[in-house]
Structure formats: structure tokens, C-alpha cells
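ARCHIVE CARD
SHELF: 3
SLOT: left
DATA:
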Amino acid sequence: MLPPDARFCHKCGKPQFESTQPEPEEAPLEPVRAETVAAPLPADVSFGNPHAVRIGLLVAFLSFFTSVLASPVALLPIVCLLGAGFLSVYLYRRRTGQRLSPRGGARMGWMTGLFAFIMLLVVFTAAVLAISDPEMCSRLVEEMRARGAGANAEAVVEAFRSPSGVFQVVVMFFVIFTLFPALGGLLGAKLLDRSRG
């Protein structure tokens, strides 16, 4: 015999009555709110960022030639390199609409300087190869003396003919061509951020 509140038979499993389970209550629908879509995070300034690479190459090309043209005037090439870093940050912000942190600005300037250094390295390598020819070397010394270099002409040419002299010049150019654009990019990121805010 089954107890009166048994739902099913313990022997055969037959239900004793139909269970009426209450249907679950549906939660009231909340109105859909239009959420503001956040602006996409800025892409990292690196060699994998095509905008940064294109802008860096363009500004490096400009800064390389302005630095070479400005080389007779003391400190003007340094100003050109600082300006190159600043200009690369400005163009990057204008092109992408993304602001750069000071670190990102320094990285943008450094990339620009690195591209300019590579261009300089190509020209410098061609000059070192030309100086290795004795006839070309003597013509260069004569031309430098004609411009007033005097006794320093031979010392300068000899420095370019020795491996240690070439290495020192390359390291010096690398530091100058990457440090000053990085500083310009850092200043550009700070100043442009301040002017917008």
C-alpha cells in the first residue's frame, strides 16, 4: 500500500497523479540601453604598425636631407633631428586620430631616426668604399685642403680608412640620429597632448 502523498509506485514506477508544476516566472525584460562604443585602443607604435612605419620613413627621408644640407651650420642638424621626431608624432596623430603617450612619442621619433640612420649608413658606406681607392683618396684630400681643412684633411681621411675609425663614426651617427628624434618625439607627444587638452 502506498502512502497518500506518494507521487509514484515504488515497485513499478507508475505515477500516481499528474504533477502540476508551476511554470517558472519570466524575469521582466529590461529596456535595452544604447551604450557608448569606446574608441578603439591605439595601436602600439612599432615596426608592425603600418601607419607608424610609413610616417617614420617619410619623415626620415625629409630629415636626412635637411640634416645633410644643414650640416655646415653648427647645431642645425641637431635641431632638424629634434624637429623630425616632433613632426613624426604630429603626422601620426593627424593620420590616425590617436594620441600618443610620451613613451609612444619617443618610440615614434626613435623609429624615424633609425630610418634616417639607415639612409645615412648607405651613403657613408659608399663614401668609405670610395676613400679606399688611393686615387680618389688623394683627390679628396686635395679638395679638403682647397676648402681650408689644412693638415686635418689627411687625419680625417685616415680615420675613415681604419676599421676602428669607421666603427666610432658609425656608433656616433647611430646615437645622434636615434637619440635626438626620440627626444623630439617625446616632446611632441607631451606638447601636442597639452595643446589639445
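SLOT: right
DATA:
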Amino acid sequence: MRALIQRVAGARVDIAGETVGEVENGMLVLVCAMQGDGDDEARLLARKIANLRIFESEPGKMNLSVLASGGAALVVSQFTLAADTSRGNRPGFSHAAPPDEGERLYELFTASLAGHGVPVATGRFGQVMQVHLVNDGPVTIWLDTAG
């Protein structure tokens, strides 16, 4: 699975003008299930993100996890993280998991993250969403369970 994590001072996701998920301080997690991913990858990624120390314990020192900082996570499905641009300028997405499996793994990832004690808000899988965020730092981290 792949994830792009952004430390945020606030983030929300809207669908058709309605806010469906929102966090204040914490992280925005854009997540994509890839072909061949399974339950182990979803749980591993959730554990890694719950414990990722990207929050400041003091100015200039990133020593705290989202849990230790009292933050929350806004998790948004993002199949475009599977983009392959090796054949030109139009990205292909064939490396993403099929929609049914992608949704199942997205839900497992979200539940696993919440199971680690992280307050979680979400978007809606497969929907057109508008994501609003204030990147704090900025801090942006790319994670991939494949490597």
C-alpha cells in the first residue's frame, strides 16, 4: 500500500459542498491499495503511520507521533498514488488494486489506524472529493509497504 502523509494544522474533505470528514491538528493521509496488497500491508501501514514521529516535541525536533501529540488523522482514498507515467504524459492506474479490493483494504487500514488509538475521520471511497488542508511545516512523507 502507498500513503502520502501531510502534517496539518487542519484538513477537511467535502463532497458536493458538504463536509464529510474534518480534523484540526494532525495529519492528512492519502492512501492507495496496490495490486497484490492484502490485509498484512494495510495493518503494517496503519501501525507505521500511528507511530510515525513527525510532530514537534520542541521547536525543530520531530519526536512525537500523532498519538503523543493529541492529533487526529483524516484518511482519504487516493488511487492516483498508483500512477504510472513511464509510457508518456498520460498516467496509467493499472497498478492500483481493483475497486472492490481497494475499498476493502482502505476500510481495513482506516479501522486499523483507529485501533491504534488514532481518532480518524474519512472521505468516501470512490467519490469525487475536494480536500482542503493547511500543511504544517510543511511536512510531507511518502510511505510504501513494497519498499
